[in-house]
From TrEMBL:
This is TonB-dependent receptor. PANTHER family: PLUG DOMAIN-CONTAINING PROTEIN, TONB-DEPENDENT RECEPTOR-LIKE BETA-BARREL DOMAIN-CONTAINING PROTEIN. Keywords: Cell outer membrane, Membrane, Receptor, Signal. It is found in: Cell outer membrane. Residues 1-24 form the signal peptide. The keyword Membrane applies. Its main location: membrane.
Length: 820
């Protein structure tokens, strides 16, 4: 009895939400009536509280919804003449469809024969085995990793799932590499995420993986997509709310990285009634991060050589009020819908970076000690809004969609730098230097786009569209000496930079069959870029106006049932993000700082790929990329002052060749693995001190993800990754490896998930980089970003409704470039 009462309370919202629809129908409906009785196919007992949706035949939009009563009965009344379909579903049963129930003037009332409803219990064991790992499907221009319903998604975050996708690596700052190459673009439901790398990682960590339908790995995007992103696109498609009434989830978790405690809470509420489909997402968290590092440098001078040894400790906390994401779609009719999405979030960052530095003329013989302590506070705010229209114009699939977007991002920060220098050869201090900075900045992004798709005869289709966007960035960085009673402006390290950029784009995409087993997709995208960088401090203005063409070509050949081969080519661009173009002065210690580069040029990439699919399961991907004007971090050594300046510049060019194999293997009926092996050759060429330096290396990476079903309904996941020595710009990255594991147990009929995760168990995910600039100069890093952590998460899911339809949105590109 208690269980029934709880169930009745849970569906109360469903009755209320449909009452208005039902009343409206009574006033305009006819006199027709459809009724029936639902019974269990095994026990022949009535099935109560099952959901029965009524649709006009050929429609995907329900006109009414009923729940069966205690005797399994349902009735639809007040119906006009016509043909109707019934869709019946209930938890634990197979969805059943009854088509073409006809109401006529001669027969206005239809009583259906007893409906036998089949339980899905007999399939549960087999389904659980099949869905331990995600299914991977290779299409002409992308790889689709299906997450929905797999053990991989249970109790995990979107970040966890993305980080273990084939060929994907995410570093501690949230920067994403795809098949060993930086420059991947991230989208959610075809829309870019409006966030810097670190904020994107925070958002993905708060997003439940159970809400993900699939991940599209698009290494060579077609002309339909923005040309931005040289290594490809990762598009996370979320499951659409297809349940009438109220459903969602709530979660709470805590984590510890050995020095800092963090927590996260989130809530997702979906509500569908009549023609409205709405959602509300909330995220409240305390994100913690930090690093322990050593930096070793050698400055080779004409007379003296300086040895620089630094030990650093960094800590950071990001927290604030809940991030809110809200949206709704309204179906005007079966063919047209409009929608709105809004996102607002603000948080406060408090971070420190504390260094102890020893400098001398010989190793381990210092003459100077520098104690530099940096304290930074920043307030980040993001407001994003989207208006959307989607239309279907015929049964062939002719569609038109339109999006209008506005994004406002602000960063308001300040920092204090306390520097103490002491001589180790005398008993008196050398210098004290206190500095202060204020760094207010922000971005306004406006964007509008239209996409049209028209299927033609003989399996042909044409797509075309247009997009216009405008970005205005305003950053006013002020640097002060703070050694006296009041701060004094340092004009040499202060700048006010305003950047405006307009991009006007258009594309056409053609799809057709070439014979029986070959599919062709060819496209061309044109983008006109107009930009102006205005350094108000010095009245320097940098204007650019250029047109680029981005062709793409895909051939998908089905050789036989067990072998398929895909050929692809595309040209891509990576424009500098707005922070890199800002000649901003970022201070770390008296001998180390970072500078932006307003002269930075866009990077272009030609990519050629061949993908082979064996038995629809195993993939071998061959790829060649030629990068021109590569954007990379470049250290500049000033030997006279023993200073290192890090900046972003264009190295001349680079090329890479890679082979990636993806092999899912079932070790046991309860033990599935997903394995990815990549080997590549990467070459960078750059001129340093008027001499050409070539940095090249063969790199390989192995990812192995294991999903194991244990007794007593426990599930375990074990992830291992190894990366060999690699080349990046002027740096050589040392090998590293790591192992993560997780254990999950479900309770309350799988409504409550309890998950325990331990990452980087052996504390081996250490980042070591080395580079030599000129003869005798050394610049080495050894950093650990506290990847080893333990996390406990509880997630409760609630759901009641009927699956009816799906809908998706489109994309916006500019905001990924707002990150520094």
């Amino acid at each position: 009895m208690k269980k029934r009462l709880l169930l009745l309370l849970g569906i109360l919202c469903l009755f209320i939400s449909n009452s208005t629809v039902s009343l409206a129908q009574v006033t305009t409906a006819g006199t027709g009536r459809i009724s029936g009785v639902l019974t269990d196919s095994l026990t022949t007992k009535p099935v109560e509280f099952a959901t029965v949706a009524l649709l006009h035949s050929g429609s995907t939009q329900s006109s009414d919804v009923k729940l069966t009563d205690g005797q399994g009965r349902f009735t639809f009344s007040g119906l006009k003449t016509g043909s109707y379909d019934l869709i019946i579903s209930f938890i634990g049963y197979k969805t059943k469809t009854i088509k073409q129930v006809t109401i006529t003037e001669q027969k206005p009332e239809v009583t259906l024969p007893k409906i036998s409803f089949s339980p899905a219990v007999t399939q549960l064991k087999e389904v659980n085995v099949q869905t331990l790992r995600p299914t991977i499907t290779q299409e002409a221009d992308k790889m689709v990793v299906s997450i929905e319903g797999t053990a991989l998604a249970a109790g995990k975050s979107a970040y966890d799932v993305l980080a273990t996708s084939p060929g994907v690596f995410i570093d501690q700052e949230g920067n994403i590499q795809l098949n060993g190459r930086a420059g991947a673009t991230v989208m959610i439901d075809g829309k870019l995420t409006y966030l810097s790398a670190r904020d994107l990682r925070s958002m993905l960590e708060s997003m439940a993986a159970e809400n993900i339908k699939n991940i599209e790995i698009i290494t060579n995007p077609s002309a339909r997509y923005d040309a931005e992103g040289t290594s490809g696109i990762l598009n996370i498609n979320l499951k659409k709310n297809t349940l009438f009434g109220v459903n969602g989830s709530a979660s709470a978790g805590a984590n510890y990285n050995g020095k800092q405690f963090g927590y996260s809470t989130s809530a997702i509420v979906n509500y569908k009634a009549g023609q409205w489909n709405s959602f509300l997402n909330l995220d409240l968290a305390r994100r913690v991060f930090g690093r322990d590092a050593t930096f070793t440098r050698v400055f080779k001078g004409d007379e003296n050589t300086i040895y620089f040894d630094q030990v650093a400790d960094g800590n950071g906390i990001v927290q604030g009020p809940p991030f809110v994401r809200v949206g709704t779609d309204y179906s005007l009719n079966d063919k047209h819908s409009v929608g709105f999405m809004g996102y607002y979030g603000t948080n406060k960052l408090d971070a420190d970076f504390l260094t102890d530095t020893y400098m001398g003329y010989a190793p381990n013989q210092p003459f100077l000690y520098v104690d530099a302590n940096n304290y930074n506070t920043n307030r980040f705010t993001n407001f994003t809004s989207n208006l959307h229209y989607a239309g279907k114009f015929d049964t062939l699939g002719t569609t038109l969609s339109a999006d209008l977007d506005y994004v406002r991002i602000t960063n308001k920060g300040y920092a204090n730098f306390y520097n103490f220098e002491d001589s180790l050869l005398t008993d008196r201090p050398v210098r004290e230097d206190f500095l202060y900075t204020e760094t207010p900045g922000g971005f306004d992004i406006y964007s509008g786009k239209v996409d049209f798709s028209k299927p033609l005869s003989n399996s042909r289709k044409i797509e075309f569209g247009a997009k216009a966007s405008k970005v205005t960035s305003d950053n006013d960085s002020r640097f002060y000496f703070n050694n006296g009673d009041a701060p004094v402006l340092d004009t040499t390290r202060t700048n006010h930079f305003i950047y405006d950029e307009t991009i006007i784009a258009g594309y056409v995409n053609w799809n057709s069959l070439l014979g029986k087993n070959i599919k062709l997709q060819a496209g061309l995208r044109a983008e006109q870029t107009i930009s102006e960088g205005d350094l108000r401090t010095t009245d320097e203005v940098k204007k650019r106006n250029y047109l680029d063409l981005f062709p793409s070509l895909f051939l998908q050949q089905r050789v036989n049932d067990n072998y398929e081969i895909n050929y692809n080519y595309s040209r891509r661009v990576q424009r500098p993000n707005y922070g890199q173009l800002n000649p901003f002065f970022a201070y770390r210690d008296p001998y180390t700082y970072w500078l932006g580069n307003p002269e930075l040029r866009a990077q272009y990439t030609h990519s050629i790929g061949i993908t082979q699919v064996f038995k629809k399961t195993y993939n071998l991907i061959l790829n060649y990329q030629l990068h021109q004007d590569v954007i990379a971090e470049i250290p500049i050594i000033e030997t006279e002052t023993s200073t290192t300046i890090y900046t972003i510049g264009n190295v001349d060019d680079s090329q890479s060749m890679s082979a990636t194999a993806i092999a899912p293997i079932r070790i046991h009926k309860n033990w599935d693995t997903q394995n990815t092996f990549s080997v590549s050759y990467n070459e960078y060429s750059v001129v340093v001190n008027k001499e050409r330096v070539v940095n090249d290396r063969v790199f390989y990476m192995l990812q192995s993800n294991h999903n194991i079903a244990l007794p007593y309904n426990f599930k375990m996941e074990l992830n291992g990754t190894y990366q060999s020595k690699a080349a990046y710009a002027l740096y050589v990255v040392e090998p590293r490896w790591w192992v993560n594991t997780g254990l999950k147990k479900s309770f309350l009929e799988d409504k409550l998930d309890v998950t325990l995760n331990v990452n980087d168990i052996f504390k081996t995910q250490r980042l070591k980089l080395a580079t030599k600039i000129g003869e005798g100069n050394v610049n080495d890093f050894d950093q650990y970003f506290r990847q080893r952590n333990v996390a406990l998460t509880l997630r409760y899911k609630f759901s009641k409704g009927q699956k009816v339809e799906e809908r998706r949105r489109n994309n916006l590109e500019e905001v990924n470039r707002t990150g520094g």
